[in-house]
Amino acid sequence: MIRSFCVWPLVVAFALTALTSAMGVQQADPTRLTIGRLHYGGGGDWYANPSSLRNLLERIARDTRLPMAGREAEVTPLSPDLHDYPYLYMTGHGNVRFTEEEAEALREYLVSGGFLHADDNYGMDESFRREVKRLFPELELVAIPHTHPVYNILYSLPDGLPKVHEHDGLPAQGLGIFYEGRIVIFYSYQSDLGDGWEDPEVHEDPPPVREAALRMGVNLFTYAVTQRKPG
Protein backbone atom coordinates (compact mmCIF):
# COMPACT_ATOMS: atom_id res chain seq x y z
CA MET A 1 0.00 0.00 0.00
CA ILE A 2 1.15 3.54 -0.74
CA ARG A 3 0.00 6.44 1.39
CA SER A 4 0.47 10.11 0.66
CA PHE A 5 0.46 12.96 3.15
CA CYS A 6 -1.58 15.97 2.06
CA VAL A 7 0.38 18.54 4.07
CA TRP A 8 3.88 17.29 3.32
CA PRO A 9 4.26 18.52 -0.30
CA LEU A 10 3.98 22.17 0.73
CA VAL A 11 6.03 21.76 3.90
CA VAL A 12 8.84 19.93 2.13
CA ALA A 13 8.72 22.33 -0.81
CA PHE A 14 9.25 25.27 1.53
CA ALA A 15 12.16 23.52 3.22
CA LEU A 16 13.72 22.45 -0.07
CA THR A 17 13.46 25.91 -1.58
CA ALA A 18 15.23 27.39 1.43
CA LEU A 19 17.91 24.72 1.37
CA THR A 20 18.66 24.97 -2.34
CA SER A 21 18.84 28.74 -2.06
CA ALA A 22 21.25 28.46 0.86
CA MET A 23 23.37 25.90 -1.01
CA GLY A 24 23.86 28.25 -3.91
CA VAL A 25 23.27 25.45 -6.41
CA GLN A 26 24.66 26.52 -9.77
CA GLN A 27 23.72 24.64 -12.94
CA ALA A 28 23.24 25.47 -16.60
CA ASP A 29 20.14 27.40 -15.53
CA PRO A 30 20.81 28.47 -11.91
CA THR A 31 17.08 28.98 -11.30
CA ARG A 32 16.30 25.32 -12.08
CA LEU A 33 17.26 22.07 -10.42
CA THR A 34 17.89 18.93 -12.38
CA ILE A 35 19.32 15.41 -12.21
CA GLY A 36 22.77 14.50 -13.48
CA ARG A 37 22.73 11.33 -15.60
CA LEU A 38 26.10 9.68 -15.01
CA HIS A 39 28.00 8.78 -18.18
CA TYR A 40 30.35 6.03 -17.00
CA GLY A 41 32.92 3.87 -18.73
CA GLY A 42 33.14 0.12 -19.18
CA GLY A 43 30.72 -0.34 -22.07
CA GLY A 44 27.37 -0.34 -20.25
CA ASP A 45 24.40 1.51 -21.75
CA TRP A 46 24.41 4.46 -19.35
CA TYR A 47 21.89 6.19 -21.67
CA ALA A 48 19.14 3.56 -21.19
CA ASN A 49 15.50 4.56 -20.56
CA PRO A 50 15.70 7.88 -22.42
CA SER A 51 12.27 9.18 -21.36
CA SER A 52 12.56 8.22 -17.68
CA LEU A 53 14.29 11.21 -16.14
CA ARG A 54 12.26 13.73 -18.12
CA ASN A 55 9.08 12.25 -16.68
CA LEU A 56 10.54 12.08 -13.18
CA LEU A 57 11.62 15.73 -13.31
CA GLU A 58 8.11 16.73 -14.32
CA ARG A 59 6.67 14.75 -11.43
CA ILE A 60 9.15 16.22 -8.92
CA ALA A 61 8.17 19.73 -10.04
CA ARG A 62 4.49 18.92 -9.62
CA ASP A 63 4.78 17.28 -6.21
CA THR A 64 7.36 19.53 -4.53
CA ARG A 65 6.73 22.86 -6.32
CA LEU A 66 10.48 23.18 -6.78
CA PRO A 67 11.69 24.90 -9.98
CA MET A 68 12.86 21.94 -12.05
CA ALA A 69 14.48 21.83 -15.47
CA GLY A 70 12.70 19.99 -18.27
CA ARG A 71 15.46 17.47 -18.83
CA GLU A 72 18.46 15.94 -17.12
CA ALA A 73 22.09 16.95 -17.56
CA GLU A 74 24.73 14.51 -18.81
CA VAL A 75 27.77 14.36 -16.53
CA THR A 76 30.84 12.23 -15.93
CA PRO A 77 32.67 11.72 -12.64
CA LEU A 78 35.21 14.29 -13.86
CA SER A 79 32.74 16.97 -14.95
CA PRO A 80 33.84 20.29 -13.41
CA ASP A 81 30.25 21.04 -12.35
CA LEU A 82 29.60 17.63 -10.78
CA HIS A 83 29.14 19.10 -7.30
CA ASP A 84 26.38 21.38 -8.58
CA TYR A 85 23.99 18.42 -8.96
CA PRO A 86 22.34 17.18 -5.76
CA TYR A 87 21.26 13.89 -7.37
CA LEU A 88 23.20 11.69 -9.79
CA TYR A 89 21.47 8.84 -11.56
CA MET A 90 23.09 5.88 -13.28
CA THR A 91 21.52 2.89 -14.97
CA GLY A 92 22.22 0.28 -17.62
CA HIS A 93 22.39 -3.39 -18.50
CA GLY A 94 26.15 -3.84 -18.88
CA ASN A 95 29.58 -3.23 -17.42
CA VAL A 96 30.45 -0.29 -15.17
CA ARG A 97 34.04 0.82 -14.75
CA PHE A 98 35.58 3.93 -13.18
CA THR A 99 39.17 4.97 -13.66
CA GLU A 100 41.19 5.69 -10.53
CA GLU A 101 40.76 9.41 -11.11
CA GLU A 102 37.00 9.02 -11.63
CA ALA A 103 36.61 6.89 -8.50
CA GLU A 104 38.45 9.47 -6.43
CA ALA A 105 36.35 12.32 -7.81
CA LEU A 106 33.08 10.44 -7.32
CA ARG A 107 33.92 9.54 -3.74
CA GLU A 108 34.79 13.16 -3.02
CA TYR A 109 31.44 14.25 -4.48
CA LEU A 110 29.58 11.77 -2.30
CA VAL A 111 31.32 12.41 1.01
CA SER A 112 30.99 16.16 0.56
CA GLY A 113 27.21 16.02 0.29
CA GLY A 114 26.32 14.36 -3.01
CA PHE A 115 23.91 11.50 -3.68
CA LEU A 116 24.12 8.71 -6.26
CA HIS A 117 21.13 6.61 -7.26
CA ALA A 118 22.26 3.48 -9.10
CA ASP A 119 19.35 1.73 -10.81
CA ASP A 120 20.16 -1.77 -12.06
CA ASN A 121 18.35 -2.24 -15.36
CA TYR A 122 19.20 -5.95 -15.15
CA GLY A 123 22.81 -6.66 -15.99
CA MET A 124 25.01 -4.15 -14.18
CA ASP A 125 24.83 -5.71 -10.72
CA GLU A 126 28.16 -7.53 -10.58
CA SER A 127 30.24 -4.69 -12.00
CA PHE A 128 28.44 -2.04 -9.96
CA ARG A 129 29.07 -3.86 -6.68
CA ARG A 130 32.73 -4.18 -7.66
CA GLU A 131 32.98 -0.43 -8.28
CA VAL A 132 31.16 0.45 -5.06
CA LYS A 133 33.79 -1.52 -3.15
CA ARG A 134 36.47 0.56 -4.88
CA LEU A 135 34.67 3.78 -3.90
CA PHE A 136 34.04 2.75 -0.28
CA PRO A 137 36.28 -0.21 0.62
CA GLU A 138 35.55 0.36 4.31
CA LEU A 139 31.75 0.20 3.92
CA GLU A 140 29.15 -2.36 2.85
CA LEU A 141 25.96 -2.11 0.82
CA VAL A 142 23.21 -2.80 3.34
CA ALA A 143 19.45 -3.19 3.15
CA ILE A 144 17.64 0.06 3.94
CA PRO A 145 14.79 -0.49 6.42
CA HIS A 146 11.31 0.40 5.22
CA THR A 147 11.01 2.87 8.09
CA HIS A 148 13.86 5.01 6.73
CA PRO A 149 12.95 8.54 5.56
CA VAL A 150 13.83 7.66 1.97
CA TYR A 151 10.61 5.63 1.89
CA ASN A 152 8.56 8.15 3.85
CA ILE A 153 9.84 11.67 3.32
CA LEU A 154 7.06 12.79 0.97
CA TYR A 155 5.14 9.65 0.10
CA SER A 156 4.83 6.68 2.42
CA LEU A 157 5.91 3.42 0.82
CA PRO A 158 5.61 0.99 3.74
CA ASP A 159 6.66 -1.99 1.61
CA GLY A 160 9.86 -0.30 0.51
CA LEU A 161 11.19 -0.22 -3.04
CA PRO A 162 8.47 -0.89 -5.65
CA LYS A 163 8.80 -3.91 -7.91
CA VAL A 164 8.32 -2.80 -11.52
CA HIS A 165 9.54 -5.75 -13.60
CA GLU A 166 10.25 -9.39 -12.91
CA HIS A 167 13.52 -11.11 -13.83
CA ASP A 168 14.85 -13.68 -11.36
CA GLY A 169 11.91 -14.14 -9.02
CA LEU A 170 13.66 -12.07 -6.37
CA PRO A 171 12.09 -9.23 -4.39
CA ALA A 172 12.99 -5.63 -5.09
CA GLN A 173 15.73 -4.42 -2.76
CA GLY A 174 16.75 -0.93 -1.77
CA LEU A 175 20.38 -1.12 -0.72
CA GLY A 176 22.55 1.70 0.48
CA ILE A 177 25.98 2.94 1.41
CA PHE A 178 25.71 4.99 4.60
CA TYR A 179 28.41 7.58 5.27
CA GLU A 180 28.25 9.44 8.57
CA GLY A 181 24.61 8.41 8.94
CA ARG A 182 23.55 9.63 5.49
CA ILE A 183 22.73 7.52 2.44
CA VAL A 184 25.29 8.51 -0.18
CA ILE A 185 24.50 5.66 -2.60
CA PHE A 186 21.03 4.23 -3.08
CA TYR A 187 21.00 1.04 -5.14
CA SER A 188 17.66 -0.09 -6.56
CA TYR A 189 18.11 -3.80 -7.30
CA GLN A 190 15.65 -6.28 -8.85
CA SER A 191 13.22 -3.42 -9.33
CA ASP A 192 13.71 -1.79 -12.78
CA LEU A 193 12.60 1.44 -11.16
CA GLY A 194 13.59 3.60 -14.14
CA ASP A 195 11.41 1.49 -16.44
CA GLY A 196 8.47 2.64 -14.35
CA TRP A 197 9.37 6.27 -15.06
CA GLU A 198 9.38 5.88 -18.82
CA ASP A 199 6.55 6.99 -21.10
CA PRO A 200 3.53 4.72 -20.45
CA GLU A 201 3.56 3.15 -23.91
CA VAL A 202 7.19 2.00 -23.64
CA HIS A 203 6.58 -0.88 -21.22
CA GLU A 204 2.79 -0.67 -20.79
CA ASP A 205 3.13 -1.05 -17.03
CA PRO A 206 -0.14 -0.88 -15.06
CA PRO A 207 -0.85 2.66 -13.81
CA PRO A 208 -0.47 1.69 -10.10
CA VAL A 209 2.99 0.26 -10.79
CA ARG A 210 4.09 3.34 -12.67
CA GLU A 211 2.65 5.57 -9.95
CA ALA A 212 4.57 3.71 -7.25
CA ALA A 213 7.79 4.04 -9.24
CA LEU A 214 7.34 7.79 -9.70
CA ARG A 215 6.53 8.29 -6.02
CA MET A 216 9.72 6.46 -5.11
CA GLY A 217 11.67 8.71 -7.47
CA VAL A 218 10.18 11.84 -5.91
CA ASN A 219 11.14 10.54 -2.46
CA LEU A 220 14.70 9.85 -3.58
CA PHE A 221 15.19 13.32 -5.02
CA THR A 222 13.61 14.94 -1.98
CA TYR A 223 15.88 12.98 0.35
CA ALA A 224 18.96 13.86 -1.71
CA VAL A 225 18.24 17.59 -1.62
CA THR A 226 17.29 17.76 2.06
CA GLN A 227 20.46 15.88 3.04
CA ARG A 228 22.68 18.12 0.96
CA LYS A 229 25.40 19.91 2.91
CA PRO A 230 25.48 23.69 2.52
CA GLY A 231 28.53 24.92 0.74
Automatic annotation (TrEMBL):
Question: What residue stretch is flagged as signal peptide?
Answer: 1-24
Domain DUF4159, by residue range, is: 34-224
Q: Matching Pfam families, A to Z? A: DUF4159
Task: Check the record and name the InterPro entries matching this protein.
Answer: Class_I_gatase-like (IPR029062), DUF4159 (IPR025297)
Q: Can the keyword Magnesium be found in this entry's annotation?
A: no
Q: Which UniProt keywords apply?
A: Signal
Q: What is this protein called?
A: DUF4159 domain-containing protein
